[in-house]
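FAQ

Q: What does a record look like?
A: Structure on top, sequence underneath. For example:
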């Protein structure tokens, strides 16, 4: 059996993805769980914040996932003037782009990126001791099936401040719940459309294009 409830956010406890009053938020959530006899021991958070940066970029397809992640970070460092050690970077594969012949420009780009990857020293990452992935990682088997037929890939990037992610870790600890992941609102909604669902008494067709509009107090998000 599944339950769905909503509760008002305690005043001044949450702002733009940041948890400002963890105790007030914990007490409010605990009370809701107890009143509704919800006894789960795990939690997945979803969030939205102007501090979270998302981009869609095209990169050369690389077989190794870790190398591809390093390449994407190198690409993003050219676009974003931020300290990447203070952020968590994750990505999903949106589309494979197959080219019959690689251009000289692409070959040079591959060579340049590979040289950077070889000389780049591995930085020590923050150990959060839990699976803090943004649930944006694409299926590895899908990646392996398609990589040989594609020379480029379109990926969606999410760059999340570690201080934002750590706030949800601390909240899970206060609630004595096991955090399974942290997701972004738009990505969580996207997952609803991966299977057959009913919207407004009509069955959603995967072949059709859908628009999801999130109307908030301070902003409106449109996802297609």
């Amino acid at each position: 059996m599944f339950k769905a409830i909503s509760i008002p956010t305690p005043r001044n406890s949450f702002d733009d993805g940041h948890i400002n009053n963890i105790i007030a938020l914990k007490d409010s959530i605990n009370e809701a769980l107890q009143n509704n006899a919800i006894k789960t021991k795990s939690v997945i958070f979803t969030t939205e914040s102007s501090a979270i940066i998302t981009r869609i970029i095209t990169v050369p397809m690389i077989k190794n996932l870790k190398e591809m992640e390093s390449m994407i970070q190198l690409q993003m460092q050219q676009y974003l003037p931020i300290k990447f050690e203070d952020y968590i970077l994750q990505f999903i594969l949106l589309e494979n782009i197959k080219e019959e012949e690689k251009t000289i420009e692409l070959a040079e780009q591959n060579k340049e990126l590979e040289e950077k990857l070889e000389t780049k020293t591995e930085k020590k990452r923050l150990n959060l001791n839990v699976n803090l992935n943004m649930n944006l990682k694409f299926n590895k088997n899908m990646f392996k099936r398609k990589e040989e037929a594609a020379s480029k890939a379109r990926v969606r990037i999410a760059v999340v401040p570690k201080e934002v992610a750590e706030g949800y870790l601390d909240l899970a600890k206060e609630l004595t719940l096991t955090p399974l992941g942290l997701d972004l609102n738009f990505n969580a909604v996207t997952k609803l459309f991966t299977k057959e669902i009913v919207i407004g008494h009509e069955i959603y067709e995967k072949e059709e294009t859908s628009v999801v509009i999130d109307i908030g107090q301070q902003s409106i998000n449109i996802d297609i």
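Q: Is there anything notable about this one?
A: Helices lie at 22-35, 65-79, 104-119, 140-146, 162-174, 185-192.
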